[in-house]
Write a structure and sequence with these properties.
With 365 residues, this protein is mainly alpha-helical. The protein has one domain. It is built from 14 helices and two strands. Strands 1-2 form a two-stranded antiparallel sheet. Helix 2 runs antiparallel to helix 3 and helix 5 runs antiparallel to helix 12. It is globular and about 50 Å long.
Length: 365
C-alpha cells in the first residue's frame, strides 16, 4: 500500500479506470467520457510495462538490458498509433509522432530542469552524450521535414490540421519508405554506439538504483499483461477519438499532438522529472532527448511500414505546417539547452513556455 502512494507508485492508483473504460464502452456511453477514462486507464498500463521492462533489464546484463529499455520504452505510444493506423486516422498518427517529440524535448526536459534546478544553482550532465542525441534529432528533423518540402514543391501541398487521411501520389509514398529505411539503419547504428562501443557514455553509474525484486518469469508475465492492457485501452481510446473531438470541441489534430502523446508517455515523463529532482540530470536528459530520437528513428519508420498492412493504405511522412514548424523549433531548443552540459531552473521555465505556445497554436489550428 505504501508503494501506491510513493513517487513511483501513483500511476497504479488509476487502475480502476481500466475496467471502467471497458464498462463504458460496452454501455455505449458518451464518446467524450469514454475517451477521458480510457486515456487515464492507459497511464497505469504504461507504468506497468515500464516497470516490468526495468525489472527484466536489471536481470539481463547491461547490453540486453539496455536493448530492452530502448525497445519497450515507447511501446505504449506505438501500440496506440498502430490502432489509430488500423482505423485510418493517418493524420492523428502523424500528430502523435510529432507530439511525442515535442513533449519529450519541451515538456519533459523543461519540467525536469525546473524541478531539479529549484533547489540548486545549476545542474550538470554529460554534454558529449547529449550532443550526440541532439545530432540524431537533427537527422530526425531533416527526415520528417523533407517529404513535406517535396510535397510542397512537387505535389499538392501540405495536409490541413483537421484532416483524418490524405491520399498522396506514389512518389512521395516511395520517398517516405526510403526515408524510413535510412532512419531504421541509423537507429540500429545508434544502438551499437550507445549499447556497445560507447556504453559508458550513455549509462552513467548511480549507487541507489532499486528494483522491486521480480523474477524474470514474473517480469515477462507482467510485460505481457501490460501489453494486452495497453492494447485494450488503445482500441477503446482510438475508437472514441472522432466523436470525442466533436463533443469536446477540439480537433483530432490537437488530441493527437497533445493528449495522446502525453498519456502514452505519462509514466516515463514522471520518471524523468523524478530523477532530475534527485540530481541525476544525465539520466533525465537521456530519457527526454533519447526518447524523442527513438520516436523519430524507430517508431515513425515502423508505422510507415505497418501502414502497408494496416488501414486503408500507405502512410506518407508528410506533416502539416504546424507539425513541421513545431519539430524544427523543438530540435533547435534541444541543441541550445544541451550544448554546455549545464541547466538551470529558468531554462526549464522557457522550455515549458515554448511548449505552451505551441500547444495554444495547435488548439486554435
Amino acid at each position: 500500500m505504501r508503494f501506491l502512494f510513493s513517487a513511483q507508485g501513483w500511476p497504479y492508483l488509476l487502475t480502476p479506470f481500466i475496467p471502467l473504460a471497458v464498462a463504458l464502452e460496452l454501455a455505449h456511453a458518451s464518446a467524450g467520457l469514454i475517451f477521458v477514462v480510457a486515456a487515464l486507464g492507459i497511464v497505469p498500463t504504461a507504468a506497468l510495462m515500464g516497470l516490468a521492462t526495468e525489472e527484466l533489464a536489471a536481470r539481463s546484463g547491461p547490453g540486453i538490458g539496455g536493448l530492452l529499455n530502448v525497445t519497450f520504452g515507447n511501446a505504449p505510444e506505438l501500440i496506440i498509433a498502430l490502432f489509430a493506423l488500423a482505423a485510418g486516422l493517418h493524420e492523428v498518427v502523424k500528430a502523435s509522432i510529432i507530439g511525442s517529440i515535442l513533449g519529450n524535448i519541451l515538456l519533459v526536459m523543461g519540467a525536469a530542469m525546473l524541478v531539479g534546478g529549484l533547489s540548486r544553482e545549476r545542474q550538470t550532465f554529460n554534454p558529449t552524450a547529449a550532443n550526440v542525441q541532439a545530432l540524431m534529432l537533427y537527422l530526425a528533423a531533416a527526415a520528417l521535414v523533407m517529404p513535406a518540402i517535396f510535397e510542397l514543391v512537387e505535389g499538392k501541398g501540405l495536409p490541413p490540421p483537421g484532416a483524418e487521411i490524405v491520399n498522396y501520389g506514389s512518389d512521395v509514398e516511395r520517398l517516405s519508405v526510403a526515408v524510413a529505411v535510412v532512419l531504421i539503419a541509423t537507429y540500429v547504428a545508434g544502438l551499437m554506439f550507445s549499447l556497445r562501443t560507447h556504453r559508458d557514455l550513455f549509462n552513467p553509474p548511480y549507487e541507489d538504483e532499486e528494483t522491486v525484486g521480480w523474477s524474470v518469469r514474473r517480469s515477462v508475465l507482467m510485460l505481457a499483461v501490460a501489453g494486452v492492457a495497453v492494447g485494450l485501452m488503445s482500441e477503446i481510446l482510438v475508437g472514441s477519438i472522432a466523436e470525442a473531438s466533436e463533443s469536446v470541441g477540439v480537433s483530432e489534430f490537437f488530441i493527437g499532438v497533445i493528449v495522446v502523446a502525453i498519456v502514452g508517455n505519462a509514466a516515463e515523463h514522471w520518471v524523468a522529472v523524478l530523477v532530475a529532482f534527485k540530481n541525476k540530470m544525465d539520466l533525465a536528459v537521456n530519457i527526454a532527448i533519447g526518447s524523442s530520437a527513438q520516436v523519430a528513428l524507430f517508431v515513425a519508420p515502423v508505422l510507415v511500414f505497418a501502414s502497408y498492412v494496416l488501414g486503408p493504405g500507405p502512410m506518407a511522412l508528410v506533416f502539416n505546417g504546424f507539425e513541421v514548424g513545431g519539430v524544427l523549433i523543438a530540435v533547435l531548443a534541444a541543441n541550445y539547452v544541451t550544448y554546455e552540459g549545464e541547466s538551470t531552473w529558468f531554462e526549464g521555465v522557457q522550455l515549458l513556455a515554448l511548449y505552451l505556445i505551441l500547444a495554444l497554436a495547435f488548439l486554435f489550428a
